[in-house]
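In the previous chapter we treated chains in isolation. Here, by contrast, the input contains two separate entities that must be folded as one system, with a combined length of 784 residues.
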Amino acid sequence: MKNALGRDVPGHPYLGLQPIERIEYKQIKSLKEDRKDKVHYDLESFIKTLPLEDKMTLSFHHHLRNGDFVMNQVMAEVAKSGVKNLTICASSIFPTHAPLVSLIEQKTITKIIASYISGPVADAISEGKLEDVCLLQTHGYRATSIMSDETSIDIAFIAAPACSPEGNITGSMGPSGCGVLGYAIADAWYAKRVVAVTDFLVDVLVPEIPACCVDDVVKVDRIGDPDGIVSGTTKITRDPVGLRIAKSTAELMKATGLLKNGFTFQTGAGGISLAVAKEIHALCLNENIKGKFASGGITSYLVKMLEDGVFEELYDVQCFELDAVESIKRNPNHHKMSAAKYADIHDPDNIVNQLDFVILGATEIDLDFNVNVTTGSDGRIMGGSGGHADTAYGAKFAIIVSKLVSSRISVVVDQVTTITTPGGTVDVLVTDRGIAIHPRHQALIDHLKATTNLPIVEIQTLYQRALALTGIPEKTQNLGRIVALSQYRDGTILDVIRQIDTAE
Amino acid sequence: MPGNNPAMLLSAPILGSDCIIFDLEDSVSLNQKDSARLLVKHAIETLDFGSVEVVVRINPVSSQGWKQDLREIVPVYPDAIMIPKACKEDVEEIERFILEIEEEKQLTKKVKLMIIVETAYGIETIVETLRCSRRIECVLLGAEDLTTDLGIKRTKEGYEIDYARAKVAMAARAFSVQAMDTPFTDVEDTEGLVKDTLHAKSLGFSAKACIHPNQIDAIHAVFDPTQSEIDSAIEILEERDRALSSGLGVFSIHGKMIDLPVIQRAQNIVDLARKTGKLK
C-alpha cells in the first residue's frame, strides 16, 4: 500500500502529519524487592538459570556505544542455550557488535529492532541474512513502543556502569561511566525481567534506574571500553567549507528572530553541527543572549556553552564525550532525561516539542525535503534515525546542514533512497552553495530575501547546481526482498529497505 | 590555491573571497606542473565562479613552463594572469607572448595582468614595471621572497617591509591599479592577521592575499565599511541629491562643507557596502 509519501509499504502506512491521540500506557510491572541477594558473579552460569525460550525479545542499550562489551558477552552465553528466533531490541548497534552476525546466520537472532545500526550487523541485514524484517525506529518511538507493549521485552540486559547489590543503577560512576542511561529507562520499567550487568558494584545513592526495577545483578570483569564510549564525530570541523556552512546557519538562525533570550537548541555531534554551536556560542556572548536549554546527546562543546552561561540548562539523553560525563556529576543544571521524556510522541511536554532549533545532518535530501540518514545511496543500511525524525518534528526550525557535493555525490537528490524524516517536518537546508527553505515558509523566504543577503534559492536550484558538478548519477534500484522498515515516531511505516545485490 | 588539487579547485567559488588565485608555480611540484595546468584550465572552463575573479599564477620567465602555462590558460579567459617575481623585462616578454596567443586564437577579450613584486629589484623598479603594460590591474607585494632576497628575517610585526609596502601602495595609486598586501603566514593567529591587515590598510592597500580560507572573513572585516561609515556615506549622498535638485552647487552637513572628494569617498563606501552585502 502506498503511504502519504508515495512509498509502497507493508503494515500501517505513514498518513502524513496527523493529530496525536494520547494513549494510556500499560501498568508498569510489579516492583521488585530491595534484596541484596540479587548478585551473581558468573555470567555463564547465571544465563543458564534464565527461563530462555525461542522467540523471546531481549533488549540492550547503546550508551557504551562502540565500547560496549555487554551485548556480545550476553548473546554469546544465550546462544549456548540453543534458543532460536530471538528478537534483539537494542537502542543502537555498532561495529563492535560484529559477533552478532554469526548468531544471525545461525538463526539465534532472527529479528532486530533498533534506532541506529552501523557496521557488520547493518551489512548482514542489508545482505538479507536476517530472517525477519528489521525495524528501524526513532529514539522516541522505541520508548513509546516499549511503554505501549507493542514491543514486549522479555529480558532487558542493562549495561550498568555502577550498580548496588540491590540493583540501583547509575551511568555516572565506575570505570565505564557513560553519564546517562536515557535509552535504558523504558526497558528497565517495562521489561518482564531486568538484569543489570556491571563491573562496578557499589552503593548508588542517586540511581537513574532504581532497584525496584531490577531482578538480577551480574558482576563481570568489564562492561566496556571507555575509549569506545566517545563518539568518533565530536570534533568541530576545520574544513573551510564546513565552517562557511556553519556561519551561514548561524546568520540564518539570527535572521529568523527566534534566536533570543530563552531560545532552545539541539545539535548533533557532526563536525558542521558543532561548528554551528561554536558560531551560536560566540553570537550569544557578543549579543548577551541567554538560551533556556540545549538537549539531546551532549558533547563537550555544549558543556562549555552551559558553563559560559549561554544556556541555563542541559537535558541529556546520552553523553557523547567524557567531559559531559564529568559535567553531569557536578553541575546541577545538567539534567539526565529518559528517551520518553526526550521524544515520546504521547508526552506533550517532551523536550523535542520545546525546541526552537535543531541542527541535523543528511545523507540525502530530496526535492520534497524528505531526508535519508538510514541508508547510503546504494540502499545499504549505514545508520538510522536516532532522534533525527523526533527532533525535526518537534523543533520550530529544523535545519539540515551539509555540503552540497561531497566525494562527487550530491546531497540533494530527486527522491531519497530511504525516507527517515518526512520533508513536512524539515524547514531548511543550508549548504555551501545556497540555502533552501521549505516552500511552506513563503513569508519567511520573502522576509529573509528582503532583509538579508543570505543566498536563498529553491531546492531545485541547489539540485541543478549539484548536477552541474556531478553529472546525472545513474540510478540504482534494489528489487530484493524487504529487509528493514523505516518506522516513524507515530509507529507508521515511512519506507522499506530492500536487500542489496552483492553480486558484482 | 595549488592548481593540482581537484577538491580545492571545486570549493574555490564558495570560500567567500573576492578573487581566487590558482597557482601553477611554487605550490606545485615539478612532476605535477602539467596536471595542474590541465586541471586549472578545465576548472575555469567548467565551474561557475559567480562574482569571484579568477587569476592564475604562472611559472616565472626564468623557468621552462611559463609559455605552456599561457598557451593552456589564456584561451579559457581567466580574469587575470599573475606574474611572479615581476619586473619590466619579464612583463614585456609575457605580454608579447600573450598577444601572440590572443591573435592566433582570435580571442575576443584581452586578459589582464596581476604582478607580484617580491625582489629588491622589483620593488625599486616598480614604477617602470607598472608603466610598461596597460594590462596590469593589480600589484601584490610578496614579502616572503622579498625578505629572502634581502637576507633579512621576516617578522610578524613587519617593520622590515614597511618601506616596500609604502612604495608599492604609492606606486599602485599613481598608476590607478589595486595594491594588494602580502599574506600573513600564521594561519592560527587571527588577532595578528587583523593587526597586520589594519596596518596595510593604513598604508593604502585595499586588499590582502590570504593563504588559508579561514583568513578570508577577518580580512573582509578590516576592509569592509563599518555601519557608521555606511550611514554617514548615505547621508552625504542623500544630501547631495537634495542639493542638486534644489540647484545648489555646494552644501554642508552638521556644519561641515561637503566637497567633491568627500562625495566620491561616500560613493566608494556605498559601492563597497553593496558589493559586500552590507547594504541591500
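The mean pLDDT of chain A is 94. The first strand of chain A starts at residue 39 and ends at 40. Compare these points with the single-chain example from earlier in the chapter.
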